[in-house]
Design brief:
The structure is a single chain. The chain is of the alpha+beta class. The protein has helices at residues 15-30, 44-50, 71-80; strands at 5-10, 34-39, 56-59, 62-66. A 4-stranded mixed β-sheet has the order 2-1-3-4, covered by helices on one side. A hairpin with a 2-residue loop joins strand 3 and strand 4 (62-66).
Length: 81
């Protein structure tokens, strides 16, 4: 079974985005999952959807957390996938 894939929506120069990315990188050493990075500023639709919420961690249409990483929610998601 392949590791679950997550999408990390961010924007350049966002300190919350940098913090969440660093935490995700640390957790990837403990748990097996892939993260696809998407800069919301490259797509007007994503700016409308996530622009005021970044950083956002999602799996498909399921928003797992925004602004700050929620390790419990992420671990619960990884446990059930």
């Amino acid at each position: 079974m392949s590791p679950p894939g997550l999408t990390f929506y961010f924007r350049d120069g966002c300190h919350l985005c940098e913090d969440m990315w660093q935490q995700l990188d640390e957790l990837r050493r403990e748990r097996s999952f892939k993260v696809h990075q998407v800069n919301v500023d490259g797509d007007p639709g994503l700016v409308d959807k996530y622009g005021s919420l970044v950083p956002v961690l999602a799996s498909g249409d399921e928003l797992l957390c925004n602004y700050y990483l929620d390790p419990k929610t992420l671990n619960d998601f990884l446990d059930r996938t």
